Amino acid sequence: MLESIKEEIHKLKTDKLMLIVCLIIPICVNLIIGLELTKGVIDHVPMAIVDYDDSQLSRQIIRYFKENESFDVTYQIQDEAELQKLLDESKVRVGMVIPKNFSADVTSLKSPTVLMMYDGSHMSMVSVAKAKASEILISVRVGAAVTQIENRLDKSYDEAFTMAMPISFETRMQYNPAKNFNYFMTPGYGTIICQLGIAFMAVVSVTVNWDKEKKRNDLGYILGKVIFYGILGSLAIFINLLVQIYMFKIPYRGSFMAGVAMSMLFIFAVASLAVAVSAWLNNRVLAMALLGLLLIPNSIMAGYTWPVISMIPSYQWMSKFIPFTHYGDNIRDLFLKGKMVDGISDARFLILYLIVMILLAIVGVTLRKLGRPKEADDR
After folding, report:
1. Exposure winner among 50, 131, 213, 244, fewest CB in 10 A?
2. What span, in angstroms and rounded, lies between the C-alpha atoms of 251 and 245?
3. Which segments constitute the ABC-2 type transporter transmembrane domain (predicted)?
4. What is the rounded distance in angstroms from the CA atom of residue 215 to the CA atom of residue 348?
C-alpha cells in the first residue's frame, strides 16, 4: 500500500499537470463560480410596458415596477406587436400590457385584466420576475379594493382592508430568506468541480506491470491509489469550503467537522469509482469517457438543482446509486440548516459504495493479470 502511495506522490512531484487538474483548476473554477454568484439574486430584469390607458392609476403601477430593483423598465411602447418583437429579439424578458379604460373599469368594479408576458426561454429570470410582479399587482389590487370599499360603504381604512382581505397570509422564508442563489448553488457545485479533477487523474492510475505482479499485493495497491486520491481530493474540497465560508460569506450553520467528514467520505467514494474503472479498462481514453459519462450528469440526476421527486421513476431509482445524491443535499443542509437530515444513512451508503468499488477494482486487476500477454509468461 505504501509503495502504491509513494508511486502517486512521485507522479505528483514530476507531473505538474496532476497538481493543476486536482487542485489549482478546481479552486480557480470555484472562485469564478463564487464571484459570478456574489450578488446572489437576479435583479434588473429588462422589461417593456404598453400603457393603453395612460391614467393616474396606470402610471402609478408603472412607477411601482420602476422602483422595484427586480425590474429594469427599459421600454415604454405603443402596442403589443412592438412588445412581442422585443421579446422575440430577447431585448426584454418581461412585458406588461395595461388595457384601455383600465382606471375607469377599476372605478366601476369591472375587474379589468393586466396582461403579463414572460420570456419562457429564461426560466431563472422568469421565476423571479413573476414572483415580484405578482407581489406588486396583488398590492395594487388590494389597494384598489380598499379604496372602493372606503368610498362606497363609508368604511374606515382598517375596516375596508379587513373586508378586502378577509384571510391574511403570512410567509416565512426560512434558512435562505434572501433567496440567494449563491447560498443555494455554490456549496455543491464546488464539490462537483473537485470530484472531476480527482476522478480524471485517478482513472488512469492503475497499471499492470508484469515484472512486479508476483510481488505486488493487489489489495494494498488499490488501497494506496484510493487513499492518495481521496486525501488529495479532500484537500481540494477543504480549501473550497474555507473559500466559500470566509471569502464569499456563505453562512455555515452546522458542524464544520461534520462537513469535512462527509466531504471526505464522498471524495473517497469518487476516487474508488475512478480507480475501479481504471482497474477494469486498460484503454485510458475509454476509461476517461466512461468515467465522464458516470460523473458529469451528477448535478442533474442527483437532484441538486432539479428535485429527484420530479424526475421519471427510472431516474429516481438510478439516482440512489450516485454518490453525489448522498452528499449534495447534506452539505447544503449543513450550510443553511445547520444539520444533515439523512446524514447517517447517507454516510453508510458512501462507506458501502467505497468498499464495493475497492472490491471491484481488485477483481478488475485480477482479471487483467489472468489475461497477461504470452510474451510476459515466457520471460
Report:
1. 131
2. 6
3. 18-362
4. 34
